[in-house]
Amino acid sequence: MSSLKGRVWKFGDNISTDLLMPTASMFGKATEEEMKDYCMYAERPDFAKNVKRGDIVVAGKNFGCGSSRPAAKNLLALGIDCVMADSMGAIFYRNSINLGLPLFSIKDVSKFFEDGDEAEVNLSSGEVKNIRTGQTLRASPLPEELRRILQAGGIIPFLKEEAKAGRLYKD
Amino acid sequence: MAEKILARASGRTKVVPGEIVMGKIDRLMIIGEIWPEILSLLNKLGADRLWNPDRVVVVHEHMVPPANVPIADAFVQSRQAVEKFGIKNFYEMGRSGICHQLFVEKGFALPGQLVVGTDSHTTTYGALNVASRGINQDLPYVLVRGELWFRVPETIRFEVSGKLPDAVMSKDIFLFIAGEYGTDVALYKSVEFVGPTVAEMSIASRLTISNMGIEIGAKFLIFEADEKTQAYLKDKAQEPYELVKSDSDAVFESTYKIKVDQLEPLVACPHDVGNVKPVSEVKGTPIHQAFLGSCTNARYEDLEIAANILKGKKIHPKIRLIVTPASQSIYKQALQKGLIEVFIDAEAVVTNPTCGACGGLHLGILGAGERCISSQNRNFKARMGSPESEVYLASPATVAASAIAGAIADPRDYLQ
Predict the structure, then answer these.
(1) Dihedrals phi, psi of B21, to nearest 5 degrees
(2) Contact map slice: B 75-114 vs A, CB within 8 A
(3) pLDDT band at A97, cuts 50/70/90?
(4) Which of A117, A163, B59, B165 is most buried, with most CB under 10 Å away?
(5) Separation in Å, CA of B122 to nearest CA in chain A
(6) How far is CA B285 from the centre of its chain?
(7) B138: nearest Cα among B119, B114, B113
(8) Domain CATH number, residue A41
(9) Domain B153-234+252-263 matches domain B267-413 at the CATH topology level
(10) Is B272 on the interface with A (CB under 8 A)?
(11) How much is the ipTM here?
């Protein structure tokens, strides 16, 4: 996996999936295409409007807490390439890996970036750089099992490869 | 307990925190609304069968009866999937309830088992000694392979002692924890709830706590099984089961001791479950809606304490109360015991079992500037509707008292 560079959108603590993917846009209330426009609208309406492909989200603790809805879909649809937070909700974490969105839980990463900074992230080594300050820090690399899913592009491409190899089912 | 269950499910004698293991899934709960997405993914994979349809439970409940065409269409596809894959454990609206209550009532939540479900409140089954958690995008993987990777979690323990004062409920214990220790105290961890207070608690009260496990980040929230657990499962259990108990020399990352004798009714203020205050501090805050429902607090004992407070009274003329029993069987029991009549006489709206108002789906969505007190589990911004609305979380007793007052009220002033 390669190196990423992008503008940092910084959010606070306890950003829930109710904010990232509001039910106001779910259950048939908005089209698949429109859903991403609701991402964070209750907290930061300029985000979905102004975010650009290749941008990076940095957040405080417990990012993606709450409901099991696949909030990473909205972040991917908006072009977010990577999420880094002090800590993350466990279901959000699994969903993101399964959808092919790289993410790192890094202690105090929220103190390392200001909103609007430019970040450089090496997905293989876990090295994270703040271009403005020139400082770097290192995330612990993802476990091998999860890296395999992420490298395939998510759980469906991963299972597709398995199906091709005749290993879709266990029996 | 989590380590023992994951060891058994992964065919090992012992596992340690931090390891990643493949666990065999004993039971999978699916909400019907998710099928359109899953069917198309399974098609892409060329998957024409499930690993074991008898281990799958499908429930129609999140938004029932359907409030719009896309949801009606989703249920059409869900019924087709049930037929196509031969899923026998299918619960249609009218024969069902909120998924977690139904799953427990029908005896699918069994001690020592490993369960996943497509809703974050799947931690609920832990009240019955189950290791259970919510998933979403892992679903296709589980459907074809019947297993899933788990990082073995560290375990933390809450030891609860003391007698709960009148009108103080298990919900208040949980809110105390979220307020005192933070909503990330159990992030990635398994939580155990033990102690004399827990032993005294009904299964319904325990279900409230395990249901809210996810609100402190818990991967699992597990209670030990006791006589009450076994009595509850006596005529329900779908198959034989084996109880799991932590060893006397088990290692816990942290242990928190909580005394509840002096506990006050508590309220979680907007927009965070951890923003908890004693009811005395927020008493008098005007409300527009009170909601008694959700998988957290709409079981019989919850409706009963609310009815005891509301009996012979009317709710405040400027507000509305919405009551959503957690399942058809609870609804029927409440009807037979006269609780529903109390609610209707008090001028409440009584709805069918559904996730409706709690998830901001239907049957109780809030408009801009509205404030609601609710017995549910979450008060995040925009949770129940407009981003300009506010949700306060409290016990069923506090919700009922507030409905009468038209403002947040102390249930101890309203006990009859």
Answers:
(1) -125, 155
(2) none
(3) very high
(4) B59
(5) 10
(6) 27
(7) B119
(8) 3.20.19.10
(9) no
(10) yes
(11) 0.92
Angstrom distances, CA of residue A64 to CA of A17, A19, B117, B199, B328: 5, 9, 18, 34, 32
Helix axes B328-336, B300-310, angle to 10 degrees: 40
Residue numbers of B between 169 and 198 with CB closer than 8 Å to A: 183-184, 187-188
Give chain B's residues under pLDDT 70: none
Residue contact B360–A23, C-beta within 8 A: yes
d(CA B335, CA B300) in angstroms, rounded, equals: 11
Interchain CB distance below 8 Å, B45 and A14 = no
Please tell me the distance from the alpha carbon of residue B363 to that of residue B69, in angstroms, as a whole number: 16
Measured between beta carbons, which residues in chain B are less than 8 angstroms from residue A155? 137-138, 140-141
Q: Where are the domains of chain B?
A: 9-150, 153-234+252-263, 267-413
Check CB contact of B360 with chain A, cutoff 8 Å.
yes
At A145, the pLDDT band (50, 70, 90 cuts) reads: confident
**Residue B318 burial (C-beta neighbours within 10 Å; 0-12, 13-18, 19+):** exposed
Q: CA-nearest residue of chain B to A17?
A: B380
Nearest residue of A to residue B63, measured between CA atoms: A27
Q: Do B188 and A90 touch (CB under 8 A)?
A: yes
CATH class of B153-234+252-263: alpha beta
Find the domain containing A109 and state its range: 3-141
Instruction: Answer whether B231 touches A (CB < 8 Å).
Output: no
Tell whether A29 is covered by a domain. Answer: yes
Residues in A closer than 8 angstroms to B187, CB to CB, are: 62, 87, 89-90
